[in-house]
Amino acid sequence: MTGTFWAILPPVIAIILALVTKEVYLSLMIGIASGALMYHDFHLIKAMDTIFAIMGEKIGANCDILIFLVLLGILVALITKSGASRAYGKWAAKAIRTKRQALFATICLGVVIFVDDYFNCLTVGTVMRPVTDKYKVTRAKLAYVIDATAAPVCIIAPISSWAAAVGSSLPAGSNIDGFTLFLNAIPFNYYALLTLAFLAFLIIANIDYSKMKQYELNAHLEEVVEDAEEVPIVGHGQVKDLILPILFLIASCIGFMLYTGGFFKGVPLAEAFANCSSARSLVLGSFLTLIFTFILYIPRKVLAFVDFCGSFAQGFKAMTSAIMILCLAWTLSGICGAEYLNIQGFVKAAVGGSTMAIAVMPVIFFLISLGLAFATGTSWGTFGILIPISVTILSGNYMMMSVCVGAILAGAVCGDHISPISDTTILSSAGAQCRHIDHVSTQMPYALTVALCASIGYILSGVTGSGYIGLASALASLAVVMAIIVMTAKRGR
């Protein structure tokens, strides 16, 4: 079953079960178990041993991300306990007077935090949740806004951890500058560009549809996730006690990205970002921010020492759900990886030897990338599989190579968006404190709408040989869809 069509069965099982039962933990466990049993020809003991071997390996490899989540959870608990979040909410109530303004403020913050999607998801949710709650924005809507300004922004930002991932996916000996290729592919990442435009449209028009509309109309019935005991407010924090730690966190994470990338040893700026250890930088930045927060709070008696220390356990509790889902999602990805069921090998064999016409390559790469990211829950893994194939096939046609790389990046982000086992989707749910499956089910119709318009763009870019004509057609398709949504909404009223 290794490297065959059957390799996609475990993630499909997990995803279908999650959507049907709304029990994410159990669904992931069943998906993992089915994959391990398939790999070992249904030998129970060997399957169990493999599951926990993979889990241990994945947790070890991604330990920095888990530590970052815990440290950020502690920071959130500190800010809440100090009363700084409450002070910010009172201040924001004066500056932000409508639901629309609250949502646009969330978008702006998401765009500003472009260096890393993990950091983006949790920080934006933490800062904006009290404000959006005040204006009756559902947690599902907040999670969508967070998710739509995380990966789609990072994937079109030259200075980000995602740009580094793309550059590192180029095959050895290609003689192509990864950073330059990434820059050239930005205008052809139709899904990311259209997602941002579509998000702005939904907020300006104040329109929702499908499952999101049900949640928005029945906001009082929404089931909100409270992963931990509510953190009591015992301090007398001010707005600056929230703003300064957040700004320090952003600055320190960027600084450590430059540090781990060798910038202070003479490496050029772009190359430093491309070579940085994103996860390690986030850990170092968040730890330094905790020290900064201690210095900011304790001498001014914003928090008593005992209350400061008590936030550690509370912050950890708040992240347990996200950590659990991430660990299970990583394990499922591992069992489907190259060493076991090898879903990537199946896709590579199916696409790598293809002699498909250049005219259909952009849309084919987009759809395959979407499907692979959806099934595995990883965008970066999708880059690593498909970008080398596209570069090899189209080495003599730089325009079409850039379009196809843009299509791969777009498909990976889209698949990431609609996948229940995607880490970015999981963290968006955690940041908004929204039930994970509610976020998936409400976001999927929006993501698929944009994906349809992007597909039209890729079809025409292949037919015409111009990525810019494809972009124009994708935007035109989105405009038509927006008009249909507006007319349908008016009839419904």
Binned, the helix content reads: over 70%
Beta percentage is under 5%
Mean pLDDT: 82
Structural class based on helices, strands and sheet pairing: mainly alpha
Structural shape? globular
Helix and strand string, N-terminal first? HHHHHHHHHHHHHHHHHHHHHHHH
- Counted by DSSP, the helix tally is 24
- Alpha-carbon Rg, integer: 22 Å
- Give the CA-CA distance, first to last residue: 53 Å
What does this structure look like?
With 493 residues, the protein is an all-alpha fold. It has a domain at 61-164 and 230-331. 75% of the residues lie in helices and 0% in strands. It is built from 24 helices and no strands. It has helices at residues 9-21, 24-39, 44-61, 63-82, 84-95, 99-112, 117-134, 139-148, 151-154, 161-167, 178-185, 190-205, 210-217, 240-260, 269-275, 278-297, 305-335, 343-352, 361-376, 379-393, 398-418, 423-432, 436-464, 467-492. Helix 12 packs parallel to helix 24 and helix 17 (305-335) packs antiparallel against helix 22 (423-432). The longest helix has 31 residues, at 305-335. The radius of gyration is 22 Å and the shape is globular. It starts with 8 loop residues before the first helix and ends with a helix.
